[in-house]
Amino acid sequence: MxxxxxxxxxxxxxxxxxxxxxIRRAGSIARSELADLTGLSGAAVTFITSELIEEGxxxxxxxxxxxxxxxxxxxxSNHFAIGIKLTETELQGVLTDLSTTVIARQRRAVDxxxxxxxxxxxxxxALELIAQSGTPVSRxxxxxxxxxxxxxxxxxIVTESGRxxxxxxxxxxxxxxxxxxxxxVDNDVNAFALGEHLFGLxxxxxxxxAMTIGRGVGAGLVVNGGIFRGHxxxxxxxxxxxxxxxxxxxxxxxxGCLEAYVSEQSIVKQLHERSDDYRKCSADDVxxxxxxxxxxxxxxxxxxxxxxxxxxxxxxxMFDPEVLVLGGEGVRFLPYFKKAMTGEFERLAFxxxxxxxxxxxxxxxxxxxAAGLVVQxxxxxxxxxxxxxxxxxxGEAEPVGETLxxxxxxx
Length: 411
Hints:
Elements: H1 3-26, H2 31-38, H3 42-54, E1 58-60, E2 72-74, E3 80-86, E4 90-97, E5 102-109, H4 115-133, E6 140-147, E7 150-152, E8 157-161, E9 166-169, H5 171-179, E10 183-187, H6 188-199, E11 208-213, E12 217-223, E13 226-227, H7 259-262, H8 264-274, H9 283-291, H10 295-319, E14 323-327, H11 334-348, E15 357-358, H12 365-380
Parallel strand pairs: 3-6, 6-10, 11-14, 14-15
Antiparallel strand pairs: 1-2, 3-4, 4-5, 7-8, 8-9, 11-12, 12-13
Helix pairs in contact: 2-3, 4-5, 6-12, 8-10, 9-10, 10-11
């Protein structure tokens, strides 16, 4: 392909992306305002938005007919995305529109240690969601998979996931071959952070740091509108920031990690250590005991809150995000974390006073984030609608998982 054609195509995609993202942040906006915000000429804005309206991605406010300034908004119901969260024992899946509003849900038990089984189950789950919702397959833009571990998102390869025992598994390709849909895969906390940037607490921001607490502790970082993954995809492992010298043993084998104090497993273990009476307690029991005023449960949660505040302060001091979000299943402990967390955070966070935005956690948070992996690609115009799920035609964006062939070992 001639270079000038490639440059023209790139410029067109960038301008479309610029306009779509301004409309996404604003919700509804006039063409004249788009020209001011983007720096594009009025003629360019008119041409691009007309194209996008014709393609069904934008719509004019129906109540503005006959008015000189007719606001534009995104047509989120034009295409759909599938988001899947993988845990050690289960797949949780949703089908959403392009705003990640959930239309259908499915769950399926799976042995996450078996990559082929996971790929088959993901494909079957996706097809069940499509059938359940009555959505035409041609309008489903792809599948997003979120899971714990270090991920090469460009290649769709899980390079390392100790929790599920994967090492260099090309999971995006495996699922795409079985489902006949394009697939994107990323670390689950990255996916959550992206969801917060696209449609959540960080919608208006260019930089978002989202920390999650639950089974583990991690952070997703959005910088200049895109996920910051680091050199090998391992950015955001804040659970292994040392907060105590020679402290508690972490599951990673090191001592003093944040996760060793703040994760749900660690909280339960700390309560167990206080008395044999608590040996059979679960995380739910810790919460119930705290609600009843139990001294030991309150003491453990207060200590965890202090550690969480130190971890959040470290995150802010390193990345200086516009928006700081706290999420994950562990936010249910927040009433008992909050005092110590806030005190340590305000003591240690550098610079002007910061706010911690807390995500009201629900079962769809992980899966909507996974769907956001698809939505981002769709609105970035990196993948043409209707392109082949497995092999890209000449001139199309290369699909994830196709540029590198790797062997893997089923466990």
